[in-house]
C-alpha cells in the first residue's frame, strides 16, 4: 500500500511550539484523510528547528465506492415535496428514482445514490491547502509582497517549501501537486542551512531521512536529545566534572538545532559566590546552556555546556568564547543582585511604620524588604487589597493553624511575615521563579531559625500533583494559611474557576490544601476557617479527583462525603476503612443485606405504607427479630463511640456484626406481614438498620 511523506519547511519554528505543532499536523491530516474515506496503517510526526514532517504508512490508494439508498415521499405526495427530494438526492428527474412499497407507507420513491471512490492523490491535494492555511499556530506572521493582499498566507515564520510525495515502496512515488501562498509542492527539500544548503530530491521517507542526515540534519527529536545528553555527559566527564541534568532545557535545546554540536565554555570562579540556583537560571535563561558540577557533587563548577548548530573550523573555540562573554556579563548582573539584596535599602526612615506594624527589625535586610513591600502598597488584587494586607491575613491564619499541625506559633508567625519579602528583591525581580528560594537564602544569612527559613521557601508547595509536600510543621502551617487565604478571598469576591479557565490557579491551591492535610495527617475543620458551603463543595470535587487518582472507588467516596463534611482527613480515612470492610465477605454480605433492607423500606414508603415511629419489642413474634434489634442497639453504640474517637476502622468492624443477624432476619422473617402493626414494626426495624449504617456511610451509593 502507498506511503505519504509530507514536509513543511520554514525559516524557523520556535522550540516551544515544535512538538505540539507536529502533533497538530498529524491529527489534522489523518482526520481529514479518514473523513474522506481513506484508511492508513500508521502515522508518525517529526520536527526540527525548521521543519514539520509527517510519515504516513499503508494509506489506501482510493476511497471506497459509496452506495446509498435514500427514502423519499409517497408517490402521491405534493409536487413540492417530490422536487425537494430530487434536489436532496441530486436527481434530475423522478424517472431516475425507483418505487418501493410497504404496508404502512404505501408506494414511495427511493433514490439510489452511487458515489465512486476518489484517488488518494486528489484527496490529499484537496485537503492540504486548507490545513496549511488554517494551521493553529499560537502566533503567526505574513511576509513578502503577498502579505499586503487580503487573505495572505500566515505561518509561524516564513514558509519556504513544501514536500509531498505518495506511492508504494515498489514504484516511483508521485508528487502530490498543490499550491498555497505562491509555494508549489514538490519532491525537493534542503539540508542544513550552513553546511548543506543545496537542493535535495526525495522519493520517500527512508531515503529522505538518509539524505537529510548526509546534509547535516538529524530529523528525529529524541535522537537529537540523546546525542546532546550523551556528548554533554562525556565532555563533562573528560574534564573531571558532572552534567547537571535539566530535561526541560534538553527538550528546548534539541529544538534549536538540526545538527547538535556540544561545546564547553567557562567563567571566572569568583562568580561561584552566587547561589547555585541563580547561576543555573542565569545561564539557562540567557544562553540556553547547561551548568556543571564537581564530580564530588559539592558545588557548581565554573564551566558550562552549550549546544551549537554548526561544526566550526576552529573546533568551536570562538563560539565558546562568545557564549562565555555573554554568560560573564549576565553573571555580573546576578552577582550585583545577590550583593545588593544583602545591603540596606535607602530611606529606611520611611519604612518604620510598616516595620512597627509587622514587628520587623530594620537592621535585617529581609525585614527591610518586607517593610518595603508593605510601604509601597503593592497590589495583590484590586478587590483583595495589597500584598501587605494579604501577609497580615496569612500571619493571623498561620498562628491559628500552628497548634493544629504541631508548629511553634511564634515561628509560624515569623515565617508568614517574611514569606513574601523576597518579592521586592533584585534577584526575584530578575528571576520570578526563584521566589521563596531566595527568601530562604536571605533568611539563613540573617540568622532566622532553620524551620522559619525552610517555611519561607516551602510555603508555595505543593505546586502541582507531582511536587513534594512540606513536612516541616511551620511550613505546613504557612502553606495552608497561604492557600486558604487565596481560596476564601477569591470565593468572597466571586472569582471562581469556570470550565477550563482558572487564572488564579485556585484548583491547584485546593489540591495543595488537600495534599498538605492528608499527607501530613492534619485534622482540620475547614468551616472553622471561613470556608463557605460553596467553597467546601469545590474542595469535595478536588478531593474526589485526588482520591480516585490514588485508586479509591468513586462510589465509596460518594458514600462517605456529605455536603457538610469539612474534615478532609476524616473523609479519606472513612473511605479507606469502608474499602477494607467491603473487601471482606462480611462486608460484601452486609452491603447486600443493608441494600435489601433499604430497597424494601423505600418501596413501602413510596406506596404510603405505615412505618412505625419506633420499634416496639412487644410486637416481635420471632427470635430473629429480637436478635436483629439487639444487634442494632449494640452496633449503634459501638460505632458511635468509634466515630467519636475517630476510629473509623473500628466503626466498620462494629457494622460488620450486623451481617449475620440481617441475613437470619431475611431468611426467617416476612416483612410484609398481614398484620398492619407487625408490618409497621418490622419496617421500623429496617429503618433502624438504615439509620445505623448511615452514621458511617450511605450504603445506597455503593455499587454491588
Q: What is the number of strand segments? A: 18
Oligomer designation: single chain
Radius of gyration (CA) equals: 36 Å
Report the helical percentage: 40-55%
CA-to-CA gap between the ends? 50 Å
The mean pLDDT is: 94
Number of domains: 5
Strand content: 5-15%
Task: Compute the number of helices.
Answer: 25
Low-pLDDT regions: none
Q: What structural category arises from helix and sheet content?
A: alpha+beta
Q: Largest beta sheet, briefly?
A: 5 strands, antiparallel
Which term fits the overall shape? flat
- Strand order across the largest sheet: 2-3-1-7-8
Verbal overview:
The protein is α+β, with helices and mostly antiparallel strands and 704 residues long. It has 5 domains: 3-61 and 119-214, no CATH class; 67-115, no CATH class; 221-340, no CATH class; 348-485, Hypothetical protein af1432; 584-701, Isoleucyl-tRNA Synthetase, Domain 1. The strands form 6 sheets. A 5-stranded antiparallel β-sheet has the order 2-3-1-7-8, with helices on one face. A hairpin with an 8-residue loop joins strand 11 (188-190) and strand 12. Helix 20 (568-582) packs parallel to helix 23 (648-656). The protein is flat. The mean pLDDT is 94.
Summarize the topology.
Elements: E1 3-10, H1 15-35, E2 42-47, E3 51-57, E4 66-74, H2 79-89, E5 98-102, E6 106-115, H3 120-133, E7 159-167, E8 174-175, E9 179-180, E10 183-184, E11 188-190, E12 199-201, H4 205-214, H5 221-238, E13 241-243, H6 247-254, E14 261-266, H7 276-287, E15 290-294, E16 300-308, H8 317-340, H9 352-358, H10 365-375, E17 379-381, E18 385-386, H11 387-405, H12 409-418, H13 426-430, H14 437-445, H15 450-458, H16 473-492, H17 506-519, H18 533-549, H19 554-560, H20 568-582, H21 585-607, H22 623-644, H23 648-656, H24 659-668, H25 676-694
Antiparallel strand pairs: 1-3, 1-7, 2-3, 4-6, 5-6, 7-8, 9-10, 11-12, 13-15, 14-16, 15-16, 17-18
